Amino acid sequence: MSRRPPTAIDQYEALATVVRLVRRGRARTRPELGAAALLGRTVISQRVEEAISLGLLEDADVAPSSGGRAPRRLRFRSEEGLVLSAVLGAAALDVAVTDLDARVLDHRHLEWPVAHGPERTFDFLDEYFAELLKAHDPAQLWAVVIGVPGPVEFATGRPSQPPIMPGWDGYDIRGRMQRRHGVPVWVDNDANLLALGEARSTGLDDDQHMIYVKAGTGIGAGVVSRGRVHRGSKGAAGDIGHARVLEDNSVMCRCGRTGCLEALAGGWALARDAVTAVHEGRSRYLADIHRATGEITPADIGRGVVAGDAWCLTAVARAAERIGSLMAALVNFYNPDCVVFGGGAVAGGDTFLRVADHTVRSRALPLAAADLTVRAAVTGDTGGVVGGAHLAVDMLLSADALAAWAPGGRPSAVEPDRLVAGV
Ligand SMILES: [Zn+2]
Questions:
Q1: Which InterPro entries did the record assign (predicted)?
Q2: Average pLDDT rounded to a whole number, residues 37-56
């Protein structure tokens, strides 16, 4: 996006601030906006009027008076636009349509192997997007967000050598979806979207820091810094699954390297070890499952933990310790307010979280661990699509994006490419 020439009082910075403060519940009246944004009454009044004319804010009820005339409350008009959000996993995907508050209006969880490749996947996805939009005015669509289970170069929206997504390397997801839907498209790593969804759903403060660890079949993390996802230079920040934690070459990872965290503590690695355990006669619980289904899944191991199977308990505890150990180093390095664990690992009882929590606390520096919260994610299946919607709305209501689309009255008035880059 081309940068605007600087002005003494940047109209769009002020507009973006006003809308963000109301949208995030930080200010509800014009006087509160003035105090929170440190802007004068005239500027606030003009920018609120502009936001109202754009359909982003409206005057709602009257706030209680603190003496004098009671101020009108302002409301963010989340119904002004829609976001389509899809988060792909290895074997299934979530699709949702949300409003501008990232409220899920409709949602599907669908079995779909990402290994089918991008063309088939997006043909499949477009069908469900069309279905989700049926009950709405398609002209209200503001953006599409796609989350993928692998590294993404954020500026271009292309996956970068994703280990579990054959055929996706360098694929132009943004180009494909923008041509189809005619709206701006953002593409992000699934853990980043989960992290943003969790941060917003739990009201993480704008001055707080969080690391969200998705520990499921694979392992990834999203880093939230001052309320925003920290992606680093290219978008690779938080990709901890392929950090090398074992210094010998005995354990192969599905990325082609050896000794990765995922190859020791990911759900797929536990499932691999479980089959060995069955063959060595170390778990009757798993042997019964293996006999019945011909395989062991990470979910089977989770159920084994709940059932009290000794092998499953030990395997999950060891995985939690390995992940917790790396997280202790990251807690020292990054000093977050909270570490959140999501994904399949925390679904099977509290063993994983208890061991991970203990490992992080006992190995992190006292100052870094002092007020640290370690907890399970509260957002479930829809955390990623909710995070995706927040991402799109943050982007479209940024000062740069508003400068591009506000003069035309709505985001669809400008070329999607003008809205996606460099925000
Ligand atoms: Zn690896």
A1: ATPase_NBD (IPR043129), ROK (IPR000600), WH-like_DNA-bd_sf (IPR036388)
A2: 95
